[in-house]
Amino acid sequence: MSTSTQRYQAIDAAHHIHAFVDQKALNQEGPRVMVKGEGVYLWDSEGKQYLDGMSGLWCTNIGYGRRDLISAASQQMAQLSYYNMFFHTTHPAVNELSEKLFDLLPGHYSHVVYTNSGSEANEVLIRTVRRYWDVMGQPEKKIFIGRHNGYHGSTVGSASLGGMAFMHEMGGLPIPGVEHIGEPYWYAHGGELSPAAFGLKCAQELEARILALGADKVAAFVAEPFQGAGGMIFPPESYWPEIQRICRKYDVLLCADEVIGGFGRTGEWFAHQHFGFEPDTLSIAKGLTSGYVPMGGLVLSKRMADALVERGGVFAHGLTYSGHPVAAAVALANLNALDQEGIVTRTRNDTGPYLQKSLREVFDRHPLVGEIQGTGMVAALQFCEDKASRTRFANEADITWRCRTHGFEEGVIIRSTAGRMIMAPALVISHAQIDELIDKTRRAVDRTAAELGLL
Ligand code: PMP
């Protein structure tokens, strides 16, 4: 191991608390030190190259090392490195970005509150939705309904909206006024029901909860169009139309967390367009800047924004870095490139279908894989002990973790969640690179299956 790797590992162990790991175990193992990225590839400090099948944390939609984004940042830093949107002020970079963003969004959205991250977007969501109902003369409409195994961020409010039980255990969450219903994870929870019947059943759980709480108390339903961190779980087709019907019927706002699904991931600009529903708010981040600099936001429908602007008075919220000029300039360069180079269109019509078809060809009959889900540049392989009965391994998280480790050894980064291996490569990936991604993933899955005596 090189001296620079050792040095960074020592500093890291001395000073860092990492995300979602046992710190002591990580310190003993020593983290990988990533030093360079170009396109869909990464290099670590030992010179090993990886195909990044996760585009960072499903955020580098345009790939690493784009010169146009780099020069957008440096030009903006030279021109106006910082200013804010307080003090009755605005600036060109944020306006140019918003013009482009609302060109790309469906026409019934009109306003955005910029943030630095997805978690912050969902924090802003809680206060903004409650404010909206205040302004509408229904201040008792305060409760949010989220879903078990949903993920909306790591801060107090966003982690409360999420339904990760192990996260709730840290810090005494959820906050009051947040409820959770079941997730539309057919493979795990569908039992004998068809996917369509199960999708309806899950959606109708929302209706039952609204009725139990009282529609006059429920402010919003918040969900990811497809669950990301929970395991890239795609709901049955029956789910979203029924959820939308229920939200409309009881005047409950429908809030889509597009932090992963936004900016081309599914082949549509936004994941709700893929599933065919119309949310009132969109939480965005990640692909907005392709991860080059932090930026997120909460997009509001015109109906909500009109109420807040015309009747809301002072909006008692502000972040130092909302609409940061450098982030805005980078986001604009990113959106222009995704649009003008036809990258999202290619994901929908060409590379997305190629990835999905190839995955199914390789894994449909694999003994370890019980289900393949995905669209565009996002996919999941469900591991199972027995395909016919959809039996999952009791220690599925250990097994997928092993597969992910084999992936690193094979030179591909794929992620493990409880029982699923997931991938979300950059949208700029080529056919040859998709072949490489799948080939290396197959080797990692085969090694895992062989260890289990399945191959
Ligand atoms: N929402 C979803 C759906 C996410 O996947 C994430 C992050 N993985 C977040 C919100 C939180 O975003 P951030 O990490 O930028 O705070």
UniProtKB/TrEMBL annotation:
GO MF terms, alphabetically ordered: transaminase activity
Q: Does the keyword Hydrolase apply?
A: no
Task: Check the record and name the Pfam families matching this protein.
Answer: Aminotran_3
UniProt keyword annotations, A-Z: Aminotransferase, Pyridoxal phosphate, Transferase
Please indicate if the UniProt record lists Cell membrane as a keyword.
no
Family to which the UniProt record says this protein belongs: Belongs to the class-III pyridoxal-phosphate-dependent aminotransferase family.
Q: Indicate what this protein is called per its UniProt record.
A: Aspartate aminotransferase family protein
Q: Which organism is it from?
A: Silvimonas iriomotensis
